[in-house]
Amino acid sequence: MDVSLILLVLVVAIGLILVMIYNRLVALKQTCSQAWGDIDVQLKQRHDLVPNLVETVKGYASHEKETLENVIKARQTAVDASSLKDLAEAENMLEGALRQLFALSEAYPDLKANQNFLSLQNELTDVENKIAAARRFFNNAVQEFNTAIEQFPAVLIAGTFGFSVRDYFEVGEAERGAPKVKF
Questions:
Q1: What is the pLDDT along the chain (183 residues), one digit of tens a residue?
Q2: For residues 72 and 61, what is the distance between their CA atoms, to the nearest angstrom?
Q3: Which of 80, 83, 146, 174 is deepest in the core (most CB within 10 A)?
Q4: pTM for the full predicted model
Q5: 3-171 falls under which CATH superfamily?
Q6: Which residues of 40-55 are buried (b: 16+ CB within 10 A; e: fewer)?
């Protein structure tokens, strides 16, 4: 065998390895994007349910204006968020405001028994469960992607092709505790 043939085989092998690494990183990046799309769909459902829920509660708890305004403000902040970090913070704020809204129902037996309220509450609970599952899937996809771009030999090419570490969708410190409800 001559040296030029060995060199050619070596260059082709390295090229194939680079293509395989690049394709794996692209696939993982797409998985992250798809997972984020799943979260986005669930958040849109949540945002669509909130105004109906607020309107239902208004009829029973009209003097709980501050709680209702907090929910509306939190929803709008979440809708307007532009970055993943801002969205995570806004969604966590909305989640806390919704917890307070549901806690209000304990003080209003008529509201608690209202079929429309119960239906909306069940729908929102279902959406919250789906959001939690979508967050777990997204964070898992991000973890796989981040690990892949930091492992050798992918770390040698990831930056060159524009692959960078992605942020997790995390729960904020304020949302880790129980909501504070005042009557």
A1: 688 889 999 999 999 999 999 999 999 999 999 999 998 899 888 888 888 888 877 776 666 777 788 888 888 898 888 888 888 888 888 888 888 888 877 777 777 677 777 888 888 888 888 988 999 999 999 999 999 999 999 998 999 999 999 988 876 554 444 444 343
A2: 15
A3: 146
A4: 0.72
A5: LemA-like domain (1.20.1440.20)
A6: eebbebbbebbeebbe
